[in-house]
From TrEMBL:
Residues 1-28 are annotated as: Disordered. InterPro entries: Chloro_Bact_Ser_Proteases, PDZ, PDZ_sf, Peptidase_S1_PA, Peptidase_S1_PA_chymotrypsin, Peptidase_S1C. Residues 327-424 form the PDZ domain. Keywords: Hydrolase, Membrane, Protease, Serine protease, Transmembrane, Transmembrane helix. GO terms for biological process: proteolysis. The chain crosses the membrane at residues 36-57. This is Endopeptidase.
Amino acid sequence: MDKQEFEGEYYEKNEPQDTATHSTQPKKGWQTGKSLLVGLLGGVIGAGLLLGGMKYYQNKTEQPVTVPKITMKDQKNGQTKVSDLKVNVDTQATKAFEKIKGAVVSVEAYKTSVKADQRIDDLFSNSNIKPPVSGSSGSGVIYKKVGSVAYVVTNNHVIAGADKYAIILADGKKIPAQVVGKDAVTDLAVLKVESKDIKTIASFGDSNNIKVGETALAIGSPLGSNYATSLTQGIISAKKRTLDVTNSKGVSTGQATVIQTDAAINPGNSGGPLINLAGQVIGINSMKLTSTGAQGTSVEGMGFAIPSNEVVSIINQLVAHGKVQRPALGVMIVNLSYINKEYQTNKLHLPAKVTSGVVITEINPKSPLKKTKIKANDVIVKLDDKKITDVLSLREALYEHQVGDKITISYYHHKQLKTAQVTLSLEG
């Protein structure tokens, strides 16, 4: 049906109109249409605003980025410089290192392969001849300078098996060296060199005075002379640690009492000094524990150094005699703690109060004890005024003496405590 709009309202065409009874209220169809019209208008307006906003945002985001033009003045203003503020970073560690670093050297040892009728000196003096050479390297420390000669301590295993030696100073100068003496038991060796280029000498501190927890510095040439005078820092982890020691052939050479530290000690550090914060040598770095147990458990931070007090005793003997002359009792011994209680009572006839000492299991034919009444199965409990609790304590007490010294041994024989005077003989 055709419709006709009139001032916002609509009526069906030709429909009779009663003006008297006409109402201004639109009909139901008009209400529905009006709602529809308003809805459509709102949708159109809303859509327009949305599309317009999106277009505006799109135009804004798609605007090209303008890169500012950089002038030479701008570039100059963008430069910087190192601060001239001087910071004092000196510590006891740096002072200790500076004090001793000139005395720390790299040690090189070579094994040359030559024909029987050729001397090593001849081969090295002839530049046209290059014999096969194998070698090892480690560290060392210069501890004495007398006239034209300077002395260097290092580890025996660094030079073992070699026939030509040299040291490299901190400034890189290489100097030929000679062996003065070496000792496989303590793993120490002494070299001598010409002293004209030696300017710094190390001093030894008292290793008995060190404390667990105090700072320790290790200096040496880990992985060779390319890393010479490398410094690592740690603490003293233990003052006296007992370790079983073997030589380069895997043969046991007894036990060693060493300083334990967590300062990094790597291959090549062997023979270098472990120092305190006064710059004194308190030990010679000797070994590092890298694994333990049947499963090969990885271990970190367990390095060991020969105590300086023992080092001084050994190197003085090496300089004097070329070897260590150790006093010996000429006996086979075992810790009393390894013997069961029944055997201690029935065979050794020990009083119950005796709980430590060393048991003599065999006396060698040339033993100085042959001149005393000491017998096998007797238990040594004291050497002079030193209490003997185990094999290690006996060794330490014995090595405080020289060959030819007279000592008093206190021992138990059939429940009775007795003493004997013994003159110490040379080991072996």
